[in-house]
Amino acid sequence: MPYVDGFVLAVPKDKIEAYKVLARKACAVWMAHGALDYVECIGDDVPYGELTSFPRAVIAKEDEVVVFSWIVYRDRQTRDAVNKKVMADPQFHGADMPFDGKRMIYGGFTTLLQASDVVG
């Protein structure tokens, strides 16, 4: 089963274009180093919940949009190897991040269910 890294972060609305540039670059780098898929999603219907929500999780401000993304790998071992190569890639050294990385939530996940295993 595939291994997935997931991310949730808040991007200032006036930095969305800069984030898109960074996302395209990151996608190319991760894929070049062995990721199977790379997905970035900009919040469109992400209400601020009373107790929990994506905006609450990243302490999103009024002028920010929530971004939800994930990267798919063959397995955990591949993910660890790919991320090691990505972190050493000079394309990211000194890069200006158009978001507050301290409020980014991320983690690695073992796949529990995949449609292709259930349907078809």
TrEMBL record:
It comes from the Bacteria. Pfam families: DUF1428. InterPro entries: Dimeric_a/b-barrel, DUF1428. This is DUF1428 family protein. It comes from Bradyrhizobium cosmicum.
